[in-house]
Structure formats: C-alpha cells, structure tokens
C-alpha cells in the first residue's frame, strides 16, 4: 500500500488496539482526547462491533513515550467528560438521549 493511500485512511479513522489486563486485544476508533480537571480522557468507539456507546478512559502518563489507559468508575466524571464531548461535536454527530 503506498503512503498516499495510507495517509488518506489514517485521516478518516484512527484505530487504537488496546490490550486489557488479561492480554486480550480490542480495537477502538479514536474519537477525541478531552482535558478535564488536570487530566486527559480518551473518547473511543469499539471498532469490532456495531457499537452505539463510547468508551471513556483516563490517560495515565508513565514516561515520555508510554501511557496507560484506565477505566473510569466515577459516573459523575464520565458524564462530565461525555458532556464536553457532546458539546464539541453537536454540529457533527447525532446523540441519542437516554
């Protein structure tokens, strides 16, 4: 595959493969990185299924080249980050209300 085709595909969708604590790899579509209260949170969409719910993970820097992604258990924090995401993309995406 030539670089031009590869670059066009990367602009459309960025896929991250994350490995969980059991060694299982899962692909996610990168949607955004949201700064909130001094931390950063990744907003991802599972890539292997017809997912309708995003996944929000806290970015934990390890060193200059490495970072961990932690699940967020605090419902209020998840809602706050998701609200920022919805506001950023309100003119681009359609969100279902629960």
List the main descriptive attributes of the protein structure presented here.
98 residues, alpha+beta, five-stranded antiparallel β-sheet, 24% helix, 38% strand, disordered N terminus
Largest sheet: 5 strands, antiparallel
> For the largest beta sheet, what order do the strands appear in spatially?
1-2-3-4-5
Note poorly predicted spans: 1-10
Taking Cα atoms only, what radius of gyration do you get, to the nearest Å?
15 Å
Number of strands: 5
Shape: globular
What order do the helices and strands follow?
HEEEEEH
Tally of separate helices: 2
- Percent range for β-strand residues: 35-45%
Structural class: alpha+beta
| Mean pLDDT score | 84
What is the helical fraction, as a range of percent? 10-25%
How many angstroms separate the termini?
42 Å
Question: What can you see in these coordinates?
Answer:
The chain is an alpha+beta fold and 98 residues long. It contains 2 helices and 5 strands; from the N terminus they run H-E-E-E-E-E-H. A 5-stranded antiparallel β-sheet has the order 1-2-3-4-5. It is globular. The protein starts with a helix and ends in a 10-residue tail after the last helix. Mean pLDDT is 84; it is low at 1-10.
């Amino acid at each position: 595959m030539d670089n031009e085709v590869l670059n066009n595909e990367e602009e459309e969708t960025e896929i991250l493969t994350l490995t969980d604590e059991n060694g299982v790899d899962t692909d996610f579509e990168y949607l955004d990185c949201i700064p909130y209260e001094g931390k950063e949170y990744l907003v991802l969409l599972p890539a292997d299924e017809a997912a309708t719910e995003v996944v929000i993970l806290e970015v934990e820097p390890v060193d200059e080249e490495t970072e961990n992604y932690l699940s967020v258990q605090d419902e209020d924090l998840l809602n706050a980050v998701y609200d920022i995401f919805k506001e950023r993309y309100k003119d681009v995406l359609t969100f279902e209300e629960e």
